[in-house]
Amino acid sequence: MTASSDLENGGLPEQADTDGIRTRLLPFMDRFGILLVIVLIGLVMWFLQPDVFFTWRNITNIFKQTAANGMLSIGMFIVILTAGIDLSVGSVLALGMMTLAVANAGGMPWPIVLVLSPLMGIAAGFINGVGITKLRMPHPFIMTLGMLFIARGLANLISGGVPYSGLPDPVRFLGSARIYLGELDGTRLNLPVVFLATIVVYFVFWILLEHTVFGRRIYAIGGNPQAARVSGINVDRMLVAVYTICGFMAGIAGLVMAGRTNSGFPNAGQGMELEAIAAVIIGGASFFGGRGHVLGIFGGVIIMGLIKNGLNLNDVSSFWQQILIGAIIILAVFIDVLRRDLGTRH
Amino acid sequence: MTETATESSRETAGEPLLEARGIYKYFGAVTALRDVSLKLYPGEVLGVVGDNGAGKSTFMKVLSGLHSPSEGTLIFEGKPVHFSSPRDSRELGIEMVYQDLALAGNMNIAENIYLGREPRRKVLGGLLTLSDHKTGLRMAQEHLDNLKIHVKSVEQNVEELSGGQRQAVAIARSTAFRAKVVIMDEPTAALAVKEVGKVLDLISGLKERGISVVIISHRMDDIFYVCDRVMALYHGSNFAEARLEDASRSEVIGWIMGSKEHIGTVAHDRVQ
Questions:
Q1: A149-198 pLDDT tens trace
Q2: A269: closest CA among A144, A155, A129?
Q3: Which CATH number fits domain B1-93+180-272: 3.40.50.960, 1.20.1330.10, 3.40.50.300, 3.40.50.2300?
Q4: Nearest C-alpha neighbor of A152 from the set A251, A248, A254, A267
Q5: What is the DSSP letter of B175?
Q6: Does a structural domain hold residue A18?
Q7: Which of B105, B116, B131 minimises the CB distance to A224?
Q8: Burial class (CB within 10 angstroms; exposed 0-12, middle 13-18, buried 19+) of B75
Q9: A228 contacts in chain B (CB < 8 Å)
Q10: Interface of A with B in 291-310 (CB under 8 A)
Q11: Which residues of B touch A224 (CB under 8 A)?
């Protein structure tokens, strides 16, 4: 008798402790833990390359290199939030980029050239969304896999499979322009426009997902589509909108990459759909939908960029980069599994 | 349709709130419902029993607008109505609590209660409409207090709740907007024993507020605890119906199995 009551008393404080972890530490780590990881990786890189890593030039470089992935990833994120997937974003990026480059070579005025890539993205995303909902594809994987091939084929078709280079400045603005901030210790501080644009895009997505009815319903669809449906939410229409937005972001990424490289090449963005998925997963989103935050995705994109940059600086072969990214994806999801064990009652 | 009309005038006086007349529902060659009728009076709890496949769930889905009847009419507050989706029935105040509860586990209690009917606020001079989380949390807390449902916080995610708490949230959700009729599909089926009583009390609370409730249940304990009247479906048709004080458990169990025979033999089993 006494033994059992001792056990109960002994069990109580421990219960309170894990409750504290559940209610305070876990939500905090969910949101901001990824920033900690970034700081950690940053410190390691800094330690390995003290002269180069923490320079203005290198940091802005990281942002320039990750911008296209950042645009793709945030679009991919809202798709994954609905428990979907969009495999076509890399190809849609290329299609947008090629449409833009070919139209420019054909003598179209720059304002039209500028909007072509986002428009192609919207069109491809809309077709994805309609295909998934109206053709009742068993999984978004199928529809967007189809679009992966179709968009890549179209990009090659309209360009004859060859790259086009040379774009007017207004078209290149988003991808390559820099804002001069001033001088510090003799170095010119230039802020890439694309960095600002990425921040603005992520802020807009944060408002959308956390503070609009549309965004909250995206989470609801990911959590339980049946609940959303019986609540009177038009799930199909929402999904079409979500895939269209994802396509639009792929088009924006096409514009960014065209600006940065001053060209369009038909095999651009190959494999980038997988990098975007990787960033979203590293950023803490769940493949089953309904989980993850904009800040986390931003973190996931930055982590991918930091690792590539750090390995480049240390002259590590890009083959090792792939291996490391792969390991990190697995590790990130494993941490999430452990976290969930802590967070749920058994 | 046995013996209802005589002494039931006390509570069932006046017009039925919701009435179904001669409902048929076909799925392809299958007839799921055959000439099913129902009358639900204001502030009444009606139990619907029947074996698996007797058509209970289909009938409830017709009442809530998820299925439209192949034949027959629904009459709400004296007027014929036609529902093309649950949204239509809900606008009239007919709510459904689904057996799987239809909650989004990744969202908090308040967001689940107002899912699909989110409070909103305009910002930037009306240019942008945002979801009004603060108002949602406050309304949810008030509503739960009203129903005497206790949770740690309305900001808790639903996946952190026990089965009984989830059921309570689902019921709170169904009554958040001046519901007149709440239809519940097996509200206690998935609950731990100690939670069943709480949910049943919650249902009795709805009745005290003048809300009519239709409950599908397999559990005789539930039926005899909260219901005023019970009706049985058998093979997609009305089989029997009685006020609770005129029915015994074994009688009702007999109805479920399609038999009215042993009414006399087990008369000593009558409850109340």
A1: 999 999 999 999 999 999 999 999 999 999 988 887 777 888 999 999 99
A2: A155
A3: 3.40.50.300
A4: A267
A5: T
A6: no
A7: B105
A8: middle
A9: 104, 115-116
A10: 291
A11: 102-105
What CATH number is attached to the domain comprising A277?
Answer: 1.10.3470
Rounded CA-CA distance B143/A187 in Å is 61
Mean pLDDT of A14-25: 58
Query: Any CB–CB contact under 8 A between B196 and chain A?
Result: no
The answer to whether residue A7 is domain-embedded is no
pLDDT score of B3: 43
Could you read off the pLDDT of A229-287 as tens digits, one per residue?
888 899 999 999 999 999 999 999 999 999 999 999 999 999 999 999 999 999 989 88
Kindly provide the ipTM of the predicted complex, given to two decimals: 0.83
Q: Given CB atoms, is A234 within the 8 Å cutoff of chain B?
A: no
Structural contact between residues A221 and A289, judged by C-beta atoms closer than 8 angstroms: yes
Residue B20 belongs to what H/E stretch?
A: strand B18-27
| Backbone CA torsion sign across B169, B170, B176, B178 | negative
Interface contact flag, A230 B133, Cβ < 8 Å: no
Q: Chain B contact for A220, CB < 8 A?
A: yes
* Chain B touched by A233 (CB under 8 Å): yes
Structural domain boundaries, residue A111? 32-341
